[in-house]
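Sorry, explain these tokens?

***
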Amino acid sequence: MTINKFEGKYAFLSNFYTSRVQEGGIVYPTIEHYFQAQKTLNRFERQEIAAAATPGQAKRAGRNVTLRGDWEEVKDKIMLQGLRLKFEIDELATMLLETGDAYLEEGNWWHDNTWGNCLCPKCENIPGQNRLGTLLMQVRQELKKR
């Protein structure tokens, strides 16, 4: 089985899903807020992103931060850390485990072939890297071992 849309019953798999996490004394309402804030080492910029009203606003704010020099090297590790924090929330961990052995793929229409797999006609011949889905399946395996 493949879950390739993080909506409806599977909306909790999305980084835009409300999943309040805390790190470094800052509370992030979603993993999107957390991830975007980690693009900078500036605490004030992180707090501004954490305070964004929506995950979409946090994503836009993340495009305008003082980008940390090692971002390209650490972004996958940061996403994994954010997902681990998210799925420390018991209800969300249970929901992730209930996906069983399903292949998780962030199917999207916004041309993200890095974290997901764009399903639009323009991208149909471009295989997505599905980094988010792969990391979600890794966290699921870690939860199974607990």
Q: What stands out?
A: The mean pLDDT is 96. The first strand starts at residue 2 and ends at 3.
